[in-house]
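Customer ticket, subject: "Can you confirm the structure for Sulfatase?"

Message body: Hello, I'm evaluating your service for our small team and ran a test protein. I'd like someone to confirm that this is what the system normally returns, since I don't have a reference to compare against.
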Amino acid sequence: MTDTTTDLSRRASEEETAEKPGRPRRARRIAGRVATAAACLVVVAGFTMPNDLDGLTPSAFVRLPLEIVLGLAVVAAVPRARRAVAALLGAALGLLVIVKVIDMGFHATLDRPFHPVFDWSLFGPALEYLDQSAGRATAIGAAAGAVALAVAVLAATTLSLLRLSRPVVRHRAAAARAAVALGAVWVACAVLGARLPPGVPVAAVAFDRALQIPADLREQRRFAAQAGRDAFAHTPGEQMLTALRGKDVVFAFIESYGRDALENPTFAARVGAVLEDGNRRLRKAGFEARSAFLTSPTVGGSSWLAHATLLSGLWIDNQKRHRDLVTSDRLTLTGAFRRAKWRTVAVMPGNTKPWPEGNFYGYDKVYPRAALGYKGPPFNWDTPPDQYTLSFFERTERARRDRPPLMAEIPLVSSHSPWAPTPRLVGWDEVGDGEVFGPIAAAGQRWQDAWRTPERMRAAYRGAIEYTLAALLSYVETYGDENLVVIFVGDHQPAPVITGPDASRDVPIAIVARDRAVLERISGWGWQEGVKPGPDAPVWRMDAFRDRFLTAFGTRPRPDSPSSP
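Agent reply: Thanks for trying us out. I re-ran your input and got the following:
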């Protein structure tokens, strides 16, 4: 009995010893299969993921990208090039994923995709905005996080494709048959236009964005030819703006003031009440206004593109066009006023760095933020309140004696994101150096609290628009006279998180004057009475404004030198 027990124990011990080497092998096989499945998920998700947050639906990931079929076929056909093909395709996939993620951010903030040819230079202003609104640590953290995420994505896609290439080479015949079958499915789906709800095509091409680059380059050449045609380039100064002689003309660009502020139910009632009250007070002070809409080239940001479009008469919808414009000799509205002997000034509360573009536009004097003498606390985007900016302009420029008429560009930025804390109006004689705004800022809502939910963000946006409009209307009412003409114009709609999807790009514009002869010059435009345009008001593209303005108040363009369409 004892011998039998001993023999059984020995056999059990031998079997246990024999199983031990197999256990790690089974664990490795399981881990390998899990890693292969994860790699497959990474590759499929990378090729099929949409470039817009609204497109993140389950059906988006069920598509069949052509690049997967071609990659499978190439690796199966040329096994010795497995590593090179997998590494190259993995790096390309990583770059594609990075561009798609950037696209998501652009769609969410600017309502358009990222253009690799034009938009790389926008990352600098974005970091500057984070620095000024959220602090240097946040900006540095965001930059470091973005770089780390990009490296991780590139590593993940490259390693995943290298891993998946191994079983393809081991099972070349099966992989080749799979490639042929998938290719046939892709062609059939493409020919038949097969789609999955909600209208997602089954046959996909992931790298179609590469076709955008040559298209963008062709578009840039067309823009260069268009920019070279200017009907007013050689118009003498004495023939320009003759109907505005002796007038101070102020172009007040209102940040994020879009059509939705007037028509979206979330904002319309309260913003409309501010404008209706302003209409009443302006009429009482002897002013009249005409208003309409302009279609802006940008949404959610890049305000300078809208400024450039309105002032130059060219459609400036990306940073490359802007750079080309400001290095050209294109005549701007500012340049036209200067040629006609106006003193031209720009009061720029958002500018913290040198602004060489001021020379291109033709300003005699540029006041950046540091020159405004503001001693109060910063609001929202680390800027002074709009009432202070307007007060500075009045006492520094308009109150001067023995001066020529003024043309001024004044961006009003209290309605710039993050829209909190929001200033409130004080008496114009109380503004001083801005210290009076200290208690207002201390009692205001922090932007971090305003951004907790979309509803709070929209409420903060609405309050900021109300404040800026009230400040501008109060300025005209308080300091306006027979020689003041003010153009109220929005630069762009706010980001889609404020307006919701599919909002228009229209912005309100109004011309306000006490001298009725000024408004009679634009009677043929069909604009509506008052500073609030109605739903059926005329809509122009913003680049059409320059030529129509110069024509209405001066000389018609020469027919032999056509302007931009």
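A couple of notes from the result: Residues 136-170 form the longest helix (35 residues). Residues 358 and 366 are 7 Å apart (CA to CA). Feel free to reply with more questions.
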